[in-house]
DNA sequence: GTGGTCTAGACCACT
DNA sequence: GTGGTCTAGACCACG
């Protein structure tokens, strides 16, 4: 049973919130390859959102290669071998890193703090991954 | 003279990019209370963007209390640094760091690559700041 | 002015028909990098289909890297540098090639005919590409 | 003994894959008029798919006049080859070829690669056919 | 039961 | 004006 929380006033699109939380569960090992996700109808009822919003979240995740939907069967986590080129991957990560760094700088946070936080987040993913197996 | 760079392909709204970079200059000390900002007409011409986009950026900044427009005189900085508490700062950074880490995990990028990219981006900001002063 | 024809009884999803025809126009050089596509509202009215169906076609094309949509400006053809790995590309093409070959075999079409048809289609794309430049 | 292979990841509906491969065997002469097909129960067990999926494949084939089910006796082939005219055949193949070429263009794959892949797939079908006889 | 597509219509964000 | 998101509800395809 997946615990996803939606904040309709956050300004972040609802389908994005769904995607992000599923990705986080995957990174932290609570969801792994082969696991079945809640059905579109079920999740939409649980979250009190429109089914098509869930459809959008799921199909974006499918585009990203994170999940796979099978007609009449359901939606499943894939063992994603990335189909992105190295340069595309680097570029995407660099954009996120820059966002973090600029925000930190703007707030006056020292580089050490940024590195510490990133390390901690990396560890959390690693640790949970080990637990899951 | 303010060096603002707009990337129309970044996915971030243009008015947001303008705001962020002005806030960034305020945080890094290049702009401080009392300094005058370029006029709407001037900035829109320099950046080749729509004047109404600059209007939106300025009015959001004014709403946030960061700048003040004085009729017929121009737009001026009213405060020079962020007022966030330490814990709020940490929380905001952690959100961005988590996004980066989760995305990296998704793409199968190793932790080393993430750390390397963050370090590189941190260095780059430092360099720019030194040049600016 | 783009001439797109929709056959609602073909069994092929409408958004797919839109995508395929735009891709074909790109391949044949009638649309090239930088060109603006009809707006969502305009195209939906022209084709007498729902705007969200056009949205779906456009956003799938954007995922494929073929087009780019800019908030408040419109939708434009990109100069797509592929972000797919070589193996993913080969795999996708092989699937289509297999479909063609199996269908041909099923119909009793000789290999020569298949090769001839593929060459002709390749030529058509090539020729029009040269004309466009 | 029919060798049918199902790929649940191909995106093609399972019942379609079953139909296509039976038609393929008919075209290649491995199945001819009067031959008996495996029972629904047997085939569904062999392929590890749902019996209703086999029912759907068989009934579509029956509807198309390719097979005939005789109550209590089994399912039999009624015709052994495609009845398409040359021009219809050419048209169908051209549609598939165009799809392949357009997609290749989209991904920036050179014409040579397309030709190479088609040749390889043609060869592979030939080999299978020879082995079957 | 499952997911896939489409419609009609609304509101928001951006330029 | 542009695209982006969301809702409500329908029908079809698949297993």
Features:
133 residues, homotetramer, DNA-binding, mainly alpha, two-stranded antiparallel ribbon, globular
Give a topology summary.
Four copies of one chain form a homotetramer.
Chain A: H1 14-27, H2 40-47, H3 51-63, E1 67-70, E2 74-77, H4 86-107, H5 111-132
Antiparallel strand pairs in A: 1-2
Helix pairs in contact in A: 1-3, 2-3
The first copy, chain A, binds a DNA duplex (15 and 15 nucleotides) through residues 13-15, 39-41, 49-53, 55-56, 58-59, 69-75.
Tell me what the structure shows:
Four copies of one chain form a homotetramer. Chain A is 59% helix and 6% strand. Chain A is globular. In chain A, α1 (14-27) packs across α3 and α2 packs across α3 (51-63). The first copy, chain A, has five helices and two strands. In chain A, strands 1-2 form a two-stranded antiparallel ribbon. With 133 residues, chain A is mostly helical. Chain A has helices at residues 14-27, 40-47, 51-63, 86-107, 111-132, and strands spanning 67-70, 74-77. Chains A and B meet through α1, α4 and α5 of A and α1, α4 and α5 of B. The structure holds a DNA duplex (15 and 15 nucleotides).
What share of residues of chain A is helical? 55-70%
Q: Oligomerization state of this entry?
A: homotetramer
Low-confidence segments of chain A, given as residue ranges, are none
Largest interface pair: A-B, 44 and 42 residues
Strand content of chain A: 5-15%
Largest sheet of chain A: 2 strands, antiparallel
DSSP E strands of chain A, number: 2
């Amino acid at each position: 049973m997946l615990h996803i929380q939606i904040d309709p006033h956050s300004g972040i699109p609802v389908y994005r919130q769904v995607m992000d939380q599923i990705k986080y569960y995957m990174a932290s090992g609570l969801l792994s390859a082969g696991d079945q996700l809640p059905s579109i109808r079920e999740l939409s009822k649980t979250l009190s959102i429109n089914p098509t919003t869930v459809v959008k979240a799921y199909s974006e995740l499918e585009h990203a290669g994170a999940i796979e939907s099978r007609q009449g069967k359901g939606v499943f986590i894939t063992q994603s071998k990335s189909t992105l080129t190295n340069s595309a991957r680097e570029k995407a990560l660099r954009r996120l890193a820059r966002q973090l760094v600029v925000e930190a700088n703007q707030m006056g946070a020292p580089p050490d703090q940024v590195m510490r936080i990133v390390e901690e987040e990396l560890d959390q993913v690693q640790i949970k991954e080990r637990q899951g197996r």
